[in-house]
Amino acid sequence: MNHDYYMQLALDLAILGWPAVAPNPMVGCVIVCNNVIVSSGYHKKYGDSHAEVNAINDLPENIYPSDCMMYVTLEPCSHYGKTPPCADLIIKNGFKKIIICNLDPNPLVAGKGIEKLKNAGIEVLTGVLEQNGRNLNRRFFTFYEKKRPYIILKWAQTVDGFISRVPIPVNRIDNLITGNEAQTYSHNLRANEMAILVGKNTVLNDNPKLTTRYVTGNNPLRLFIDKDLSVPKKFNVYDNSANTIVFNRLNKTIEGNINFVKLDFNENIITQIIEKLIDLKIQSLIVEGGAKLLTSFINAKLFDEILVFENPGLKFEKGIKSPEVNLKEKFELVGTDRLFKLP
Q: Which residues of the chain, if any, have pLDDT below 50?
């Protein structure tokens, strides 16, 4: 049997569920009988039936599970959550062999699903295309293994290394660095991640919406740091377009879609923010600025990806310097802008 082939098909199915399944992982399932795929399914939406359930429900009546092999990208769950345990359903239907890509790092599962299957006499093979599966569910694995969200740092800079003019132009278009294609790329990124964080100066200088208005997709949870609540309520981050958390030292209330969260600014702010995101089960975070905030994440080595857009035809000559990272020679073009991806 070509286990890699069938597992890759299951992984390809799994990705169709993103981002609707978040904070659950993406999971795909393929059922094979005599080297023929007879059924398949994937987890489509958080709270809905899991991949194994959908694949089993799609089995033709004349196909017996005992004659089949099930390929699933993540260890079947063994506990009651929003749905019953998939391991129990697999056992009940009489499957004899299960091929699994990744073990589930969630402590509620973490080997218990496989143990339950083996105790029922089912042959279990694990680790097929394991790295492919870890990459697919990198947010999920980072959250449970590193006890923090998957963190993406992103900024745009001029070819001479500035992220903003100083003083800030009255017409904010004069401070714009990237083209429409890069902005669309950034909004697609927002639609695929769970939260976005900026500092007070970015809000005051750019008045961003931090939404996905250029693309189709859900808005991320907006986060911004405003120690003394100096950002006026007329700014875009206080509109009703997305749920928002304001990290500050004065206020602990909820006003409509705005949640004011008090932090101790004498302690490590980033650590406190990450602890709050863990409580909220936020598995991915984009940090968009400014330079001081981005640099603090870089210095703390709290990132998984860095995305840097560079306009090769634009110089500011002076202003706010971009964070210091070594951009690789290799880049991809997004419109006329260069996109560097690190590491």
A: none
Q: What angle do CA 274, 276, 281 make, to 5 degrees?
A: 90
In which region does residue 336 sit, left (phi positive, over 0), alpha (psi from -120 to 50) or beta (all else)?
A: alpha
pTM of the predicted protein model: 0.93
Coil, strand or helix at 332: strand
CB 64 within 8 A of CB 98: no
**Helix, strand, coil % (nearest 5) of the chain?**
30, 25, 45
Question: What's the token pair of residue 173?
Answer: 């278009």
What is the pLDDT, as a whole number, of residue 108? 83
Measured distance CA(28)–CA(30) in Å, rounded = 7
Residue type (1 letter), 238? Y
**CA 146 distance to own-chain centroid:** 14
| pLDDT tens readout for residues 204-241 | 999 999 999 999 999 999 999 999 999 999 999 999 99
Token look-up 């098909």 returns 9
| Residues designated as active site | 52
Report long-range pairs for 207-212 (Cβ below 8 Å, ≥24 apart): 207/172, 207/235, 207/236, 208/236, 208/237, 208/288, 209/236, 209/237, 209/239, 209/241, 209/242, 210/236, 210/237, 210/242, 210/288, 211/187, 211/241, 211/242, 212/187, 212/188
d(CA 325, CA 164): 17
Contact by Cβ (8 Å): 208, 183:
no
> Are 284 and 152 spatial neighbours (Cβ–Cβ below 8 Å)?
yes
Contact 263, 273 (CB under 8 A): yes
